[in-house]
Amino acid sequence: MPLIPQLFRTDRPARHWRSENHYRRLLEAAPDALIVVNEGGLIVLVNVQAEKQFGYLRDELLGQPLTNIIPEGFAGQLVIDGARSGGEMLANQQAAAVDLKGQRKDRSWFPIELTLSAVRSAQGLLTIFAIRDITSRKRAEANVLQKMDELNRAQVTLNCIGDAVVCTDLTTNITFLNLAAETMTGWPMKEAWGRPLADILNTGASAGNGSSANTAELAILEKCAELVPTRCVLVRRDGTKLQIENSVAPLHDQYGNASGAVVVFRDTTAAQEMAQQIIHAADHDWLTDLPNARLLSRRITTAIENAQRYGLRVAVLFLDLDGFKHINDSLGHSIGDQLLQSVAKRLVGCVRPGDTVSRQGGDEFVVLLTAVQRKEDPANLARRLLRTVAEVHSADQHDLHVTTSIGMSMFPDDGHDAETLIKNADTAMYQAKENGRQGFQFFKPVMNARAVERQSIEEAMRIALERREFSLHYQPKIDLRTGLITGAEALLRWNHPDRGLLFPSTFIPVAEETGLIVAIGKWVIQDACAQAKGWSDAGFPDISVAVNVSALEFRSERFACDVLATLDDTGLLPGNLELELTESVFMKHLDSAAAILQSLRSAGVQIAVDDFGTGYSSLSYLRKLPVDTLKIDRSFVAQVELGADEAAILTAVISMARSLRLHVIAEGVETSEELAFLHEQDCGQAQGFYFSRPVPVSSFVRLLLQQADGQKLEGAQCKQTLSMGPPPMRAL
After folding, report:
1. Within 13 A of 167's CA, how many CA atoms are on the CB side?
2. Residues 403, 387: contact at Cβ < 8 Å?
3. Is 497 exposed, middle or buried (0-12, 13-18, 19+ CB in 10 A)?
């Protein structure tokens, strides 16, 4: 049998020729590729569209297996199965259209839709494949799927963001709400769809703001984004209101034509509340919620302007609590904070609604009285404040007693601006403290002279260390059993270039307030250790040197390290250095203080409690702290001459120290009667004017030389020794 069946025979009548030509023209004119395959699966007829689609010439396809251009097994297997079934299977497949892949001559693939039918001829069963190139259709389907995917992703994205999104058509009817918009408006999408925007996003026109619907129409009309004012109120479906900010922009179709509007908005209620809190915090004290110095200054300025307009006065009262530092140091910050809050409430309760109570920081408060008509009004208020503050305060099961000192200044007499009035009231407050505390004092110009002096001391003290204007005097400590000098307390003096020798009471309070005490204290320890090492190198018996430590020094992070470094630098044995701390210094943070003292004590440094009995009321700390010595305050020693009952505390302290195996030093011994009593009570050591005042290094060396000659240090003999000039040079 020839490869090409004679479908169109040449020996037929002319009418058959015309018919065959007609079908051939139809075959060639068909828009799809037509391929005829015999029972063996070989191509026996193709049209021109088949050549174009597969890239072959007609002769290249004829006689080739169908699987050369449709490699997938479906088509070939279908022909074989159809032949075996006598064409019944193919007959059943005539209506079927299958999507497959065709392979061109250049081995490239393209999607096709294949429809087949079967005919019988003299040559046997023939299968006709109608093949359509569906590349464009697949591309279009892919585009549709992509757009649908993008739409789905866009909708998922819009539902995930926190901002609300509402879309409308050209008539501003709703076409879309994301989940945030549903939540904020209270309208679900299925109920909102098709409704006017004004029904769903009801922002009204309050405060002069246009509604969102009007803004959307404007955005569509002008083809640009429109910003709705920030403080816009959304009325939700249930009638509740939200503060929102939103923007409106036009939507465009693929041709750039406006197709609607999109409104994006967010709930700003929390943000506005946060902003108000930030503004409030900037003008108010964090602890008491009272106006701070910044807000007070503005209110004073406003009060002055009103007073000038109406011919009135303004009063400023500056309050500082008496005894607060002791409570804060001994009971801790928590109790101190509760006390400040209690005081703040009481102060507010004493003033008129139009007046201001402000906390300046620490334990300082300022009261502003506006529209003062009588000068005695501030004084009456001051008396009321003194009584109110002095009443007992309760804090964490503690009954606390605190008083206040008040300074007052008046506009226009004492200043014409907030800064001057506050400064002068502060100056008057210091005068009230000097007058005995728990009182009030009006500002007087002469007070400025004292304030200027205080400022002068502060400025001069800052350069005193560089100029080596500080020096140490030493007061000997006497062993009452042997009468010998066992140590000395180093006491600071300031050789002021203009004012001569200044005692600590003149400048130490200023040094503590300004923080200069830390640098000064470091120098004191350095110089005292170097001096004690010098005495040891000169051949004197071991003399321990005691140094007072302030609270600011002790709380410095590097305090213990600096002390140990000083001992290394000077070469002084740690056991010859004694640090004296008052009870309030370490009671603020007992556990951390114990750790610091233990590190020093482990190195050999001696620890003494100074002014024992005048500070913290509980003695339990003596079991927790590595203490070596108790120094009994002068106030207890002076009670000796008043009788046995008055001296009972001194007796008890000495007995307690002995039971705790602590050394005892009695401070401020001035008379032979006091000395005799201490001998009787078996007190270990003493110091005071009876033995020696604090003296310069040269005079202290003379005392050591006197002791080396076998003379004991006491009474008139000591005074005679100290009245002599510098000791002669002698080797020991």
Report:
1. 14
2. no
3. exposed
Could you tell me how many helices (H) and strands (E) the chain has, helices first? Answer: 29, 27
Nearest to 296 by CA among 425, 180, 190, 105: 425
When mean pLDDT is compared across 215-219, 611-615, 625-629, the lowest value belongs to: 215-219
Those residues whose C-beta lies under 8 Å from the C-beta of residue 187, and which sit 6 or more positions away, are: 177, 181, 195, 200, 237
How many residues does this entry show for the chain? Answer: 732
pLDDT at 501: 86
Closest CA to 451 of 418, 481, 425: 425
- Residue 679, classed as helix, strand or coil, is helix
Q: Is 438 left (phi over 0), alpha (psi -120 to 50) or beta?
A: left
CA pair distance 247, 226, nearest whole angstrom: 6
Alpha carbon distance 449, 177 (integer Å): 74
Q: How confident is the model at residue 385 (pLDDT cuts 50, 70, 90)?
A: very high
Predicted confidence (pLDDT) at residue 75 exceeds the cutoff of 60: no
Give the pLDDT mean for 174-180. 90
- 111's enclosing H/E stretch is strand 109-121
pLDDT(79) > 60: no
Q: Where does 294-353 show beta strands of DSSP type E?
A: 313-322
Give the CA distances from residue 725 to residues 266, 341, 532, 703, 722, in Å, rounded to whole numbers and listed in that order: 88, 59, 21, 12, 8
d(CA 13, CA 22): 14
End-to-end alpha-carbon separation of the chain, Å?
145
Alpha-carbon span 566 to 170, nearest angstrom: 85
More confident residue, 205 or 240: 240
- Rounded Cα gap, residues 246 and 165, in angstroms: 10
- Nearest Cα residue to 636 out of 596, 677, 605: 677
Q: What is the largest CA-CA distance in the chain?
A: 169
248's enclosing H/E stretch is: strand 241-252
Tokens read off for 289: 């919620």
- Cα–Cα distance measured from residue 190 to residue 163, given in angstroms and rounded to the nearest whole number: 19
Cα–Cα distance measured from residue 500 to residue 394, given in angstroms and rounded to the nearest whole number: 48
Distance of CA 504 to the CA centre of its chain: 40
Q: Are strands 403-411 and 440-442 parallel, antiparallel or unpaired?
A: parallel
Amino acid at 435: N
pLDDT at 732 over 70: no
Query: Which position has the token pair 């120098």?
Result: 523
Q: Decide: 215 and 262 in contact? Cβ < 8 Å.
A: no
CA 681/CA 542 separation, integer angstroms: 26
Tokens of 396: 């964490």
Predicted pLDDT of residue 7:
46
Contact in structure between 213 and 197 (CB atoms under 8 Å):
yes
For residue 97, give the nearest of 42, 137, 150 by alpha carbon. Answer: 137
Angle at 142 between CA 141 and CA 148, to 5 degrees: 90
Token look-up 């307390």 returns 489
- Return the HEC string of 587-640: HCCHHHHHHHHHHHHHHCCEEEEEEECCCCCCCCHHHHCCCCEEEECHHHHHHH
